[in-house]
């Protein structure tokens, strides 16, 4: 077994979208992968696809719902019980909820906060401590272009991604000279099941040319992670969003974004 084959990536939200494509990137380059996602059947199907495409690579799965209390710790403990060392942590899992805050479902938003923030912080805490002891490791955090701009009608999701931006940039300074790198990937609207879960299929943004390929986003995120880049804006659209967030007042950005998140027929 060579050095590449002995290293393992843990990818959350790995059964579809950006997470699945990131898994393919690791497997393509000979790294072992532990895929985790909420639904066991979908996870098994995704893992079988990866194994069929890359038969020589270790492909393992752990089904868990990271939006639940204690799930992140249970995931960490399962990895430890299997004796597997995680060299790459990919905190990809997350979802959104579109709608007026006055009308959206509070339970779903609490689950969103738990998955997008609490699980991400918990897994980072658990695995980065092991990485620091070894003096090596890489972490990819899934932010969003929503990290930079207020999003009316997607307020809780965008706030969770703003948290990830601040959290990751703080840790990048704290962990300097430890041998650990943290990379923040900030995708633009991307072809995944995000729009369906967030009830955004009929919005202007979901039906626009701004929607990018999950393959392209994952490939750029993977390259940035391996290079130890602090931040990855994977496409021109992502770079435009970030520039908009820096140059326009928040009130203007919020008004522009609200229009994009309205339904096509509104």
Automatic annotation (TrEMBL):
One CC-aspect GO term: membrane
Signal peptide limits: none
Molecular-function GO terms, alphabetical: oxidoreductase activity
Pfam families to which the protein is assigned, alphabetical: adh_short
Keywords assigned: Oxidoreductase
Family to which this protein belongs: Belongs to the short-chain dehydrogenases/reductases (SDR) family.
Designated name of the protein: Short-chain dehydrogenase
UniProt source species: Adhaeribacter arboris
